[in-house]
Specification:
The protein is mainly α. It has helices at residues 3-28, 34-60, 68-93, 102-122. It is built from four helices and no strands. Helix 3 (68-93) runs antiparallel to helix 4 (102-122). It is elongated and about 50 Å long.
Length: 124
């Protein structure tokens, strides 16, 4: 993923996360249980952290050559879609089987952060 594309994807994810956070705080709290609201909050939190991570990766790309950061950005985006997306759907629908998908997004996040560390250690 190119730097500009990654920044745009990160910024759009921040936009969505802020909107989802506001929706959870104002619109959902009377519609879903406290447990589901906590799940929604977790989805928002991880989306925010990794959207900012995507932007940080894009800013690091000119300083650190190699494919590791490109893959890290892709994995963060995939993690947001899978992890946060499955939690949003779980909170809205109560369909518990969606929780089985969530760990795949978490693994994508973990792999992305390992790639960031690898890029930093490899590029001295």
């Amino acid at each position: 993923m190119k730097e500009r594309t990654l920044i745009a994807a990160g910024a759009l994810n921040m936009f969505v996360a802020v909107g989802c956070g506001a929706f959870g705080a104002h619109g959902l709290k009377k519609m879903i249980s406290e447990e589901m609201l906590a799940i929604w909050h977790t989805a928002v939190t991880y989306q925010v952290m990794h959207a900012l991570g995507m932007i940080a990766i894009a800013l690091l790309m000119p300083r650190m050559a190699g494919a590791a950061l490109h893959w890290a950005g892709r994995l963060m985006l995939a993690g947001i879609v899978i992890f946060s997306g499955s939690l949003y759907l779980l909170a809205l629908t109560g369909t518990r089987i969606l929780g089985a998908i969530t760990p795949f997004g978490g693994v994508a996040f973990l792999a992305a952060w390992l790639l960031v560390a690898w890029a930093a250690l490899k590029n001295r």
